[in-house]
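## retry 2 of 3
previous attempt timed out at serialization; input unchanged, resubmitting
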Amino acid sequence: VGKVLRTAIEQNPGDIGLVDAFLNLASAAPQYFVPKGELPTAVDLAGDQILQQAVQEILKQESSRAVLVAASYQQAMGKQDEAYRLIFDRAAKAWDRLSRFSAAAPSLESGEQEDNLFFDEIEAFQYDYQLLVQLGRFTSARIQSASPPDDLQIADVQKWLDNLLELDVRTIRISDSVH
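## retry succeeded, writing output
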């Protein structure tokens, strides 16, 4: 299975789902990356040039999902600071997209037009939300580490997490129209 996934990534280096599946399988079930009968060992992610190139390729898509997968790759390689940087650098864009649904956004009562989440935006919305939550987790862990984030980073993360708390996803209207 691992060989098939690796070949698929080689043929489709920009496919985020393939890269994500490869990383998850390599972590959870390394036995699928060795010939039958051999003892499983940790998958050598650092030495896999195809995977490294695919991670760089998916980052060109500038989506929160791509950043989450790339950060997962960096974590698997033991590069916690790089994983944190990737997510932190994307957080402002993620919040910008989510902010139109925050409690502070204009509502019908104020005379503004209501903003719907279109069906084709649901996945991006979900990954933007997950990215900010993951940033909160990383920041909490880094505060306890030898290389804590600076006060400005902590303040930014706190602001984004506070804003997420104001985001009432139950009130978001989903439209099946494609925009």
